[in-house]
TrEMBL record:
MF terms (GO), sorted A to Z: hydrolase activity
Keyword Protein transport applies: yes
Entry-linked Pfam families: Arf
Family recorded in the similarity comment: Belongs to the small GTPase superfamily. SAR1 family.
Source organism (scientific name): Aspergillus lucknowensis
Keyword ATP-binding found: no
Name of the protein in its database record: P-loop containing nucleoside triphosphate hydrolase protein
Source taxonomy: Eukaryota, Fungi, Dikarya, Ascomycota, Pezizomycotina
Key words of the record: Endoplasmic reticulum, ER-Golgi transport, Golgi apparatus, GTP-binding, Hydrolase, Nucleotide-binding, Protein transport, Transport
Record PANTHER family: RE74312P (PTHR45684)
Top-rank taxon, per record: Eukaryota
Major location category of this protein: endoplasmic reticulum
Compartmental location: Endoplasmic reticulum; Golgi apparatus
Protein backbone atom coordinates (compact mmCIF):
# COMPACT_ATOMS: atom_id res chain seq x y z
CA UNK A 1 0.00 0.00 0.00
CA UNK A 2 2.77 2.41 0.96
CA UNK A 3 4.72 1.63 -2.23
CA UNK A 4 1.61 2.37 -4.30
CA UNK A 5 1.11 5.67 -2.46
CA UNK A 6 4.74 6.70 -2.97
CA UNK A 7 4.49 5.84 -6.67
CA UNK A 8 1.32 7.92 -6.99
CA UNK A 9 2.99 10.88 -5.27
CA UNK A 10 6.00 10.51 -7.55
CA UNK A 11 3.76 10.68 -10.62
CA UNK A 12 1.94 13.75 -9.27
CA UNK A 13 5.18 15.58 -8.43
CA UNK A 14 6.63 14.69 -11.84
CA UNK A 15 3.54 16.14 -13.54
CA UNK A 16 3.70 19.36 -11.48
CA UNK A 17 7.46 19.73 -12.15
CA UNK A 18 6.90 19.25 -15.88
CA UNK A 19 4.16 21.91 -15.91
CA UNK A 20 6.37 24.39 -14.05
CA UNK A 21 9.28 23.65 -16.39
CA UNK A 22 7.11 24.15 -19.49
CA UNK A 23 5.69 27.47 -18.25
CA UNK A 24 9.16 28.67 -17.27
CA UNK A 25 10.52 27.82 -20.71
CA UNK A 26 7.67 29.71 -22.37
CA UNK A 27 8.30 32.81 -20.27
CA UNK A 28 12.05 32.84 -20.86
CA UNK A 29 11.89 32.42 -24.61
CA UNK A 30 13.46 29.42 -26.26
CA UNK A 31 15.18 28.09 -29.32
CA UNK A 32 12.40 26.98 -31.67
CA UNK A 33 14.28 24.17 -33.41
CA UNK A 34 17.33 22.14 -32.41
CA UNK A 35 19.18 19.32 -34.16
CA UNK A 36 20.28 16.68 -31.68
CA UNK A 37 22.79 14.05 -32.80
CA UNK A 38 22.41 10.53 -31.40
CA UNK A 39 25.95 9.20 -31.15
CA UNK A 40 27.34 6.03 -29.65
CA UNK A 41 28.84 2.62 -30.45
CA UNK A 42 26.87 -0.17 -32.10
CA UNK A 43 24.09 -1.57 -29.89
CA UNK A 44 24.19 1.35 -27.47
CA UNK A 45 20.51 2.13 -28.21
CA UNK A 46 20.49 5.02 -30.73
CA UNK A 47 17.75 3.72 -33.03
CA UNK A 48 15.72 2.40 -30.10
CA UNK A 49 15.89 5.82 -28.45
CA UNK A 50 14.61 7.52 -31.62
CA UNK A 51 11.73 5.03 -31.74
CA UNK A 52 10.78 5.40 -28.07
CA UNK A 53 10.91 9.20 -28.25
CA UNK A 54 8.53 9.13 -31.20
CA UNK A 55 6.06 6.72 -29.66
CA UNK A 56 6.12 8.11 -26.10
CA UNK A 57 6.65 11.85 -26.53
CA UNK A 58 5.26 12.83 -29.92
CA UNK A 59 1.68 14.03 -30.09
CA UNK A 60 1.28 13.27 -33.79
CA UNK A 61 2.44 9.64 -34.22
CA UNK A 62 2.40 8.31 -37.75
CA UNK A 63 3.02 4.89 -39.33
CA UNK A 64 6.59 5.80 -40.28
CA UNK A 65 8.71 6.48 -37.20
CA UNK A 66 11.53 7.88 -39.32
CA UNK A 67 11.34 11.49 -40.52
CA UNK A 68 13.66 12.85 -43.15
CA UNK A 69 15.42 15.97 -42.10
CA UNK A 70 15.93 18.60 -44.81
CA UNK A 71 19.67 17.97 -44.62
CA UNK A 72 19.28 14.28 -45.33
CA UNK A 73 19.81 11.93 -42.37
CA UNK A 74 16.98 10.02 -40.79
CA UNK A 75 15.71 10.74 -37.31
CA UNK A 76 12.58 11.70 -35.44
CA UNK A 77 11.29 14.96 -34.03
CA UNK A 78 9.84 15.64 -30.58
CA UNK A 79 8.22 18.85 -29.35
CA UNK A 80 9.18 19.53 -25.74
CA UNK A 81 9.07 22.73 -23.71
CA UNK A 82 8.31 24.75 -26.83
CA UNK A 83 11.32 23.49 -28.79
CA UNK A 84 11.15 21.05 -31.68
CA UNK A 85 14.05 18.63 -31.25
CA UNK A 86 15.09 16.81 -34.40
CA UNK A 87 16.90 13.69 -33.21
CA UNK A 88 19.29 12.41 -35.88
CA UNK A 89 20.53 8.82 -35.70
CA UNK A 90 24.15 8.92 -36.85
CA UNK A 91 24.53 5.13 -36.97
CA UNK A 92 23.50 2.51 -39.48
CA UNK A 93 25.22 0.46 -42.16
CA UNK A 94 25.26 3.20 -44.83
CA UNK A 95 25.79 6.18 -42.51
CA UNK A 96 28.40 8.79 -43.54
CA UNK A 97 31.44 9.52 -41.32
CA UNK A 98 30.52 10.88 -37.89
CA UNK A 99 32.13 14.26 -38.57
CA UNK A 100 29.74 14.77 -41.50
CA UNK A 101 26.94 15.41 -39.00
CA UNK A 102 28.81 17.87 -36.76
CA UNK A 103 28.11 21.22 -38.52
CA UNK A 104 24.34 20.87 -38.04
CA UNK A 105 24.46 19.94 -34.32
CA UNK A 106 22.80 22.03 -31.60
CA UNK A 107 23.23 19.29 -29.02
CA UNK A 108 24.52 15.74 -28.65
CA UNK A 109 23.15 12.68 -26.90
CA UNK A 110 26.00 10.21 -26.44
CA UNK A 111 24.70 6.74 -25.62
CA UNK A 112 26.68 4.20 -23.65
CA UNK A 113 25.74 0.60 -22.91
CA UNK A 114 26.06 0.64 -19.12
CA UNK A 115 25.89 -3.17 -19.05
CA UNK A 116 28.75 -3.82 -21.48
CA UNK A 117 31.95 -5.52 -20.41
CA UNK A 118 34.79 -3.27 -19.30
CA UNK A 119 37.03 -3.96 -22.33
CA UNK A 120 34.47 -2.41 -24.69
CA UNK A 121 34.87 1.03 -23.09
CA UNK A 122 38.05 1.57 -25.09
CA UNK A 123 35.96 1.97 -28.27
CA UNK A 124 33.32 4.00 -26.46
CA UNK A 125 35.85 6.39 -24.93
CA UNK A 126 37.62 6.84 -28.26
CA UNK A 127 34.36 7.92 -29.87
CA UNK A 128 33.63 10.33 -27.00
CA UNK A 129 37.12 11.85 -27.33
CA UNK A 130 36.45 12.43 -31.04
CA UNK A 131 33.27 14.31 -30.16
CA UNK A 132 34.75 16.39 -27.35
CA UNK A 133 37.89 17.19 -29.32
CA UNK A 134 36.28 18.39 -32.55
CA UNK A 135 36.48 22.18 -32.99
CA UNK A 136 33.14 22.22 -34.83
CA UNK A 137 31.43 21.12 -31.61
CA UNK A 138 32.93 23.65 -29.20
CA UNK A 139 30.07 25.06 -27.14
CA UNK A 140 27.67 22.27 -28.14
CA UNK A 141 26.16 20.64 -25.02
CA UNK A 142 26.57 16.89 -24.50
CA UNK A 143 24.30 14.62 -22.46
CA UNK A 144 25.80 11.17 -21.87
CA UNK A 145 23.15 8.48 -21.47
CA UNK A 146 24.14 5.45 -19.43
CA UNK A 147 21.62 3.12 -21.09
CA UNK A 148 20.30 -0.33 -20.07
CA UNK A 149 20.19 0.28 -16.32
CA UNK A 150 17.47 -2.41 -16.21
CA UNK A 151 20.16 -5.01 -17.00
CA UNK A 152 21.55 -6.86 -13.94
CA UNK A 153 25.14 -6.11 -15.03
CA UNK A 154 24.58 -2.37 -15.40
CA UNK A 155 27.08 -0.17 -13.58
CA UNK A 156 26.24 2.75 -11.31
CA UNK A 157 26.62 6.41 -12.26
CA UNK A 158 29.93 6.63 -10.40
CA UNK A 159 31.26 3.47 -12.03
CA UNK A 160 30.23 4.68 -15.48
CA UNK A 161 32.01 8.01 -14.97
CA UNK A 162 35.14 6.14 -13.94
CA UNK A 163 34.97 3.73 -16.90
CA UNK A 164 34.44 6.68 -19.25
CA UNK A 165 37.55 8.34 -17.77
CA UNK A 166 35.50 11.37 -16.80
CA UNK A 167 37.12 12.22 -13.48
CA UNK A 168 36.49 15.64 -11.94
CA UNK A 169 39.66 17.11 -13.44
CA UNK A 170 38.71 16.14 -16.97
CA UNK A 171 35.09 17.24 -16.47
CA UNK A 172 36.28 20.65 -15.30
CA UNK A 173 38.31 21.03 -18.50
CA UNK A 174 35.41 19.89 -20.71
CA UNK A 175 32.96 22.24 -18.98
CA UNK A 176 35.07 25.24 -19.94
CA UNK A 177 33.88 24.66 -23.51
CA UNK A 178 30.40 23.16 -23.09
CA UNK A 179 27.76 21.83 -20.74
CA UNK A 180 28.14 18.09 -20.11
CA UNK A 181 26.40 15.71 -17.78
CA UNK A 182 25.50 12.06 -17.27
CA UNK A 183 21.95 10.70 -17.12
CA UNK A 184 21.29 7.04 -16.34
CA UNK A 185 18.39 5.52 -18.26
CA UNK A 186 16.64 2.49 -19.64
CA UNK A 187 15.50 3.44 -23.11
CA UNK A 188 13.28 0.38 -23.61
CA UNK A 189 11.50 1.02 -20.28
CA UNK A 190 11.23 4.78 -20.88
CA UNK A 191 13.18 5.52 -17.71
CA UNK A 192 15.19 8.73 -17.56
CA UNK A 193 14.01 10.08 -20.92
CA UNK A 194 12.00 12.99 -19.52
CA UNK A 195 15.10 14.01 -17.58
CA UNK A 196 17.06 13.78 -20.84
CA UNK A 197 14.62 16.12 -22.62
CA UNK A 198 14.67 18.60 -19.74
CA UNK A 199 18.48 18.67 -19.68
CA UNK A 200 18.64 19.11 -23.46
CA UNK A 201 16.10 21.93 -23.39
CA UNK A 202 18.01 23.70 -20.64
CA UNK A 203 21.50 23.34 -22.10
CA UNK A 204 20.60 23.87 -25.77
CA UNK A 205 18.82 27.12 -24.99
CA UNK A 206 21.58 28.33 -22.67
CA UNK A 207 24.04 27.60 -25.48
CA UNK A 208 21.86 29.46 -27.99
CA UNK A 209 21.57 32.52 -25.72
CA UNK A 210 25.34 32.48 -25.17
CA UNK A 211 26.02 32.31 -28.92
CA UNK A 212 23.66 35.20 -29.63
CA UNK A 213 25.34 37.29 -26.93
CA UNK A 214 28.76 36.45 -28.35
CA UNK A 215 27.70 37.49 -31.88
CA UNK A 216 26.26 40.77 -30.60
CA UNK A 217 29.46 41.42 -28.67
CA UNK A 218 31.55 40.82 -31.80
CA UNK A 219 29.26 43.03 -33.93
CA UNK A 220 29.34 45.94 -31.46
CA UNK A 221 32.99 45.47 -30.51
CA UNK A 222 32.10 45.39 -26.84
Amino acid sequence: MLSYLFRLLEIIFDFIASCIYFISARLKGIKKHANILLIGPTNSGKTTLAHVLRTKFRRDPDPDYLDRDASGPYGTHVDFGGTRFQFIDTGGFAAPPLSWFFPQADGIVFLVDAAQEAQWYRETNGMLREVLGDKQLIGIPVVIIGNKIDHPNAVSTEELIQLMELDEGRLDVVRRERAIEVVMASVVLNQGLRVLLERLSQHVNESAFHNVAQRRKQETGR
